[in-house]
């Protein structure tokens, strides 16, 4: 295989890996966006829970369903908010695990790209000498 063919193959490989890296970076950005949304929701729900904990057992609690306020049992409201907090926390944990995986892939892809660039450079340097 000639140097120019080897060089072309390496450059094609480099392009593919650069595209993969770009996709990984988009996925990481998306993960951060979703995490931000869930973190805000978690804060809001924890605030609601604190407010519910301050109420006496006979307090009136209302839940908004569409444009309508519907009376809700305090214990039920409390349980619902706790369930929501558990769900959001689980989602955040899942997002963290996914992010860690994506970042590891990103680092590995960067290393591969660096090695490819070095190989291309050394091939080009060798070609220049010839």
From TrEMBL:
Give one GO biological process term. Answer: protein folding
Q: Does the keyword Chaperone apply?
A: yes
Pfam families documented for this protein:
Prefoldin_2 (PF01920)
Organism field? Rhodamnia argentea
InterPro entries reported for this sequence: PFD_beta-like, Prefoldin
One function term, GO molecular function aspect? protein-folding chaperone binding
State any GO CC term: cytoplasm
Parts forming coiled coils: 85-119
UniProt KW Chaperone keyword = yes
The protein in question is named Prefoldin subunit 6-like
Keywords from the named record: Chaperone, Coiled coil
Q: Which domain of life is it from?
A: Eukaryota
Q: Which family does it belong to?
A: Belongs to the prefoldin subunit beta family.
């Amino acid at each position: 295989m000639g140097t120019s063919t080897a060089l072309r193959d390496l450059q094609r490989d480099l392009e593919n890996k650069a595209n993969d890296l770009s996709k990984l970076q988009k996925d990481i950005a998306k993960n951060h966006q979703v995490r931000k949304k869930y973190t805000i929701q978690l804060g809001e729900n924890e605030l609601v829970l604190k407010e519910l904990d301050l109420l006496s057992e006979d307090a009136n609690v209302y839940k908004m369903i569409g444009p309508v306020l519907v009376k809700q049992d305090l214990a039920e409201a409390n349980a619902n908010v706790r369930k929501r907090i558990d769900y959001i926390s689980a989602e955040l944990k899942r997002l963290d695990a996914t992010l860690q995986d994506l970042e590891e892939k990103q680092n590995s892809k960067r290393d591969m790209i660096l090695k490819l660039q070095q190989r291309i450079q050394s091939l080009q340097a060798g070609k220049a000498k010839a």
